[in-house]
Amino acid sequence: MSLAWWGAVLGGLAAAGLVLSSSRVVALRKQTLSSRVLPYLRDVPRRGGTQPLRAMPARPRSAPVVVFGPFLASAAAAVEAVLGGASSVRRRLDRAAMDKTVHELGIEQVVWGLVGFSLAAAYSLLRALGGGAGLGSSFLLSCLGFVGGVVLRDNHLSSQVKQRERRILAEFPTLAELLSLAVAAGEGPVAALDRVCARSRGDLSEELGRVLASVRTGVPVAVAFDALAARTGVPVVARFAQGVAVAVERGTPLADVLHAQAGDVREASRRELIETAARKEVFMMVPVVFLVLPVTVLFAFFPGVIGLSLTIP
């Protein structure tokens, strides 16, 4: 690159820095609505059970968040408007037990997309320096890198959901047996749930802890378990929650229901393990056929071939 190109690049970076700094200074000088209105509303008498207005505490922010936060927020809104599916993302966030909003996930998608864009742009720059790439192909590759980063973050969320549901399915038989033993010993559903949640750790224990917290705040047991059935993505846990809700409402024996469901889950896990082993058996034959067998044949016939070559004049 010539000296003029370097000057243009440095000038563009300096201009971008000045624009970002000036826009942030203007944003900092603006007062929020709460800071302007709350001083006149603190002494207003309250009516009924309304709570007094309080200013939201300012969270500490780092310099990159302060500088690039507005840009990332607007880019996340644009990505969400293009892709859509906010309800699906919200449901997957709930199933993954992630304390994030759809907008925060959109910001992460933009960050992953920018990382992919940077990697593709760096590769395109190396190809351009070698004289093997044009401007159009480099731009298209960079755009594909950005799209790939956004899609990769969405797929990563789906994989997190699947991993958590797999852990929940592995924990379910043990917790169901513990609940059935506690109920059979004479404890009520809430007391049994409290005992199991206090002595277990895991993703399913966290879900049951949320159910217990809802019950302690006044939500009926059947309604809390119905919410668990609607929230979870594991059909076995949904059937378990519905069975507990029906047993509590109608007074059916809860211990027998829990014991039967635990047995069904163990049987389903055993059947899935057998099916997985049957599928893996075919893949286990690949190294035997393409690696071990040719080596065995070679060791068997190679001495004979050498002997024939030595005996034949």
Automatic annotation (TrEMBL):
Transmembrane segment boundaries: 63-84, 132-152, 288-312
The keyword Ribosomal protein is annotated on this UniProt entry: no
Coiled-coil intervals, chain numbering: none
Keywords: Cell membrane, Membrane, Transmembrane, Transmembrane helix
Subcellular location: Cell membrane
UniProt keyword Transmembrane present: yes
Main subcellular location of this protein, as a coarse class: membrane
Cellular component GO terms held in the UniProt record: plasma membrane
InterPro entries tied to this protein: T2SS_GspF_dom
Limits of the Type II secretion system protein GspF domain: 176-299
Membrane topology designation: Multi-pass membrane protein
PANTHER family in alphabetical order: INTEGRAL MEMBRANE PROTEIN-RELATED, PILUS ASSEMBLE PROTEIN
Protein's name according to its UniProt entry: Type II secretion system F family protein
Source organism of this protein record: Nocardioides agariphilus
